[in-house]
Task: inverse folding
């Protein structure tokens, strides 16, 4: 039976017919259909996204111009629609760029800049315009006034989705009371169901942007967040990409575009943190990959009957006996001086011998003589047998020198469990591979070396019935590669590399393998530990706050910094799981929590280790905790264009984890301390109840005075005891404050006596301040463990006192006055 498919190709013109319906799609048309990708999937969400795009742009623009941002957001009900107005005091937009910014997707100033900014793609605000025109049919109304201009520009426009170009309906100049800035008015089908997310976005934006003034007026509520500081975030600078993490395709593009001619110039010019020395290291690593290394063999030992002098002399003709001997001696000495020697090193030694001897003897040693000498010595090194004593006795040939040399390397690199015979058989096979090499300089890449080792190991396993596992193989490769020499060949020029995928891939590998200083962080603007804590304190009434800012890392050539903060206890809700606050480049992320790398990392941490409750030992911890994470990067890897969630990039996840753990360690010590203080308090309460009863009983039985309970409690609890004693002294009284440190640590205290009369005869170290008829007498004694300090003064008889002690937690302190 003939199938439909098999006849399809026979019909003439069908491919042509199909081809006719193929056409390119404009990016605007694409996003018109796929608005969910940009965060405009519903009316509720669309409104939040539009606010976010406009506010992020306003903050970016003002900061870039060095202006403290002032952003006003208003949402009005407008019949069937909502009207969104966002006004900023930024630098404004020129008449030429304005229509494109709002009426063309993928148009912006940040896509190519390696500098931290909220905006990245050049899609955000034009997508909001697109969403508004799609749902309300109304154009966007934009007013903008640039600094110093008399008038403002006013436009009404939409995105022409066929062309992805702005379609302007109104264009005029107007007056505006703001000296500079931009005002956007969009109408859209929307609702306020995502009010919570909207408030969170504005509130959290205020937390991490304390230099901004933000106002939100919506149909039901009105918020104003005043500036908490006049300090703009440190200005960021654009940087070049870092060599760690740039992709192959990017480097190929960069090679095509660069003005540099050499690879050294290219890496220094186009990348950050690459100077001459680093460029040299990159080029060495590149040579290893591109050209391979040359094997270095051991020079002959004394017991080996290898006469390099004779070899050179035999190979040298017509130079006269003296010059020939001197030439041979110089080469043999140079070889003997090396631990190991590679072919190109031998070449250099022969050249140097030729120059010296030529000067001394007035003869020249041309290329042919030199080549003959190199060949003769090299053959002697790699071809000869090593006649050891045993062989000499039996007259048998020893192993080849290569076998002996490789045997030693392999023996040192493999476990002692492998017997001599196995290693020997392996070395023999590996040496055979070197001998078979077409390149008699014994030059090979690491991959080829690995193939040689694998082949030799496979054969050894097969014929000698022993195992030669992965670790042993890799160790042998490492040991041999280690003694091999990087070749001195010049790297290809940029024009030769350009378009050569394999060679460029070697360069990319070389850049990644080279130790290079972390990228400069002046392109980033982290919030800082201090401001994270301040922000959390402002927002959450907790008992404890911790924060951590990590050093910069690199991902995809872009530097990034991760910061974390934790708030615990206090007024935070103890019910349910921890609240996770996510930020990227100071922008709160309000959607897609479950798809975000930050959430994944928080869930993967064993929070029980840090003193939090975590059912099942994984997932979000329970309790009164807020965990805040900020990822700052010149290019945050979002999971989608709507920039809701950070992708699972391993280097970034590692740093997120380290930042959280750093803050969590502080939380753990706080919780541990709190727990031990709670136990102390419990114990002290019990003692405080039992001891007085016992004291009374003991006094009754013995007929003595009741002992001092405070003293006893302080000693049992290992507390610091501060006790005031007074004694009559003529007209007045002598006061001593005794500090008894029963704890196991040294303590620094701040002790203040507030006295109603002027004190005299103060003991050393006291300071006195009089205020409104009260004298504040202050000492700051350091009291060692098990030590005591006595602070003294005198006052008139009728004086009253008040003792205040600081520097020791209340649970570890007993004050008796
Ligand atoms: N309020 C504003 N004041 C001054 N310039 C602005 C303003 N809004 C936008 N721009 C300029 O317009 C460009 C495009 O903005 P758009 O929101 O489309 O993209 P973006 O912010 O660069 O990136 P993303 O798509 O990630 O939001 C910005 O890069 C910026 O140069």
Result:
């Amino acid at each position: 039976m003939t199938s439909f498919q098999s006849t399809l190709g026979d019909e003439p013109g069908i491919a042509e017919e199909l081809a006719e319906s193929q056409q390119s799609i404009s990016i605007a048309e694409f996003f018109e259909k796929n608005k969910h990708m940009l965060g405009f999937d519903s009316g509720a969400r669309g409104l939040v996204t539009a606010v976010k795009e406009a506010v992020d742009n306003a903050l970016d623009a003002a900061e870039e111009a060095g202006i403290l941002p002032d952003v006003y957001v208003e949402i009005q009900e407008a019949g069937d629609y909502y009207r969104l107005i966002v006004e900023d005091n930024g630098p404004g937009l020129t008449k030429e760029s304005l229509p494109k910014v709002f009426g063309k997707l993928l148009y912006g100033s940040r896509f190519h800049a390696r500098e931290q900014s909220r905006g990245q793609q050049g899609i955000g605000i034009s997508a909001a315009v697109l969403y508004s025109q799609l749902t309300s049919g109304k154009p966007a109304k934009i007013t903008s006034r640039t600094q110093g201009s008399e008038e403002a520009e006013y436009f009404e426009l939409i995105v022409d989705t066929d062309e992805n170009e702005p379609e302007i309906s109104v264009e005029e100049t107007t007056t505006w009371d703001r000296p500079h800035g931009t005002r956007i008015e969009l109408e859209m089908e929307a609702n306020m169901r995502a009010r919570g997310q909207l408030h969170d976005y504005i509130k959290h934006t205020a937390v991490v942007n304390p230099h901004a003034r933000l106002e939100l007026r919506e149909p039901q509520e009105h918020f104003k967040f005043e500036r908490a500081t006049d300090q703009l975030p440190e200005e960021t600078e654009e940087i070049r990409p870092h060599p760690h993490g740039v992709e192959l395709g990017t480097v190929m593009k960069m090679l095509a575009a660069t003005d540099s001619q050499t690879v050294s110039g290219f890496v220094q010019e186009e990348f950050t943190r690459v100077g001459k020395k680093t460029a040299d290291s990159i080029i060495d690593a590149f040579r290893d990959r591109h050209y391979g290394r040359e094997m270095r063999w051991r020079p002959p030992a004394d017991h080996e009957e290898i006469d390099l002098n004779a070899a050179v002399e035999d190979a040298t003709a017509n130079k006269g006996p003296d010059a020939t001997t001197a030439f041979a001696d110089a080469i043999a000495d140079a070889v003997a001086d090396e631990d190991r020697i590679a072919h190109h090193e031998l070449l250099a030694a022969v050249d140097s011998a030729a120059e010296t001897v030529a000067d001394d003897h007035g003869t020249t040693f041309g290329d042919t003589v030199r080549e003959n000498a190199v060949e003769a010595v090299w053959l002697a090194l790699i071809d000869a047998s090593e006649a050891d004593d045993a062989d000499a006795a039996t007259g048998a040939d020893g192993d080849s020198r290569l076998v002996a040399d490789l045997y030693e390397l392999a023996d040192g690199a493999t476990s002692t469990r492998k017997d001599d015979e196995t290693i020997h058989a392996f070395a023999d096979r590996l040496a055979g591979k070197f001998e078979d090499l077409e390149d008699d300089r014994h030059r090979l890449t690491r991959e080829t070396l690995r193939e040689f080792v694998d082949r030799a190991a496979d054969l050894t396993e097969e014929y000698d019935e022993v195992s030669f596992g992965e670790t042993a193989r890799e160790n042998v490769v490492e040991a041999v590669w280690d003694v091999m020499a990087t070749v001195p060949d010049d790297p290809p020029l940029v024009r030769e590399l350009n378009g050569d995928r394999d060679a460029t891939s070697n360069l990319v590998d070389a850049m990644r393998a080279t130790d290079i200083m972390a990228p400069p962080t002046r392109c980033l603007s982290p919030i800082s530990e201090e401001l994270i804590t301040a922000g959390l304190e402002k927002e959450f009434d907790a008992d404890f706050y911790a924060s951590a800012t990590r050093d910069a890392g690199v991902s995809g050539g872009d530097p990034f910094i991760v910061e974390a903060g934790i708030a615990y206890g206090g007024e935070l809700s103890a019910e349910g799981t921890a609240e996770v606050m996510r930020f990227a480049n100071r922008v709160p992320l309000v959607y897609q929590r479950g798809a975000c790398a930050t959430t994944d990392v928080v869930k993967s941490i064993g929070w029980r280790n840090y003193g939090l409750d975590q059912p099942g030992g994984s997932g979000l911890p329970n309790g009164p905790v807020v965990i805040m994470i900020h990822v700052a990067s010149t290019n945050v890897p979002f999971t989608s264009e709507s920039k809701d969630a950070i992708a699972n990039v391993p280097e970034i996840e590692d740093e997120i984890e380290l930042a959280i753990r750093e803050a969590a360690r502080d939380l753990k010590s706080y919780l541990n301390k709190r727990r031990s203080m709670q136990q102390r308090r419990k114990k002290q309460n019990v003692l405080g109840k039992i001891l007085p009863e016992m004291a009374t009983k003991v006094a009754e039985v013995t007929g003595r005075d009741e002992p001092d309970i405070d003293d006893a409690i302080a000693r049992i609890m290992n507390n610091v005891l501060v006790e005031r004693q007074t004694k009559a002294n003529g007209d007045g009284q002598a006061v001593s404050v005794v500090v008894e440190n029963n704890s196991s640590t040294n303590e620094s205290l701040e002790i203040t006596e507030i006295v109603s009369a002027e004190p005299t005869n103060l003991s050393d170290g006291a300071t006195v301040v009089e205020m409104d008829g009260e004298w504040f007498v202050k000492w700051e004694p350091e009291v060692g463990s098990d030590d005591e300090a006595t602070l003294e003064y005198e006052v008139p008889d009728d004086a009253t006192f008040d003792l205040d002690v600081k520097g020791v937690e209340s649970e570890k302190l007993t004050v008796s006055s």
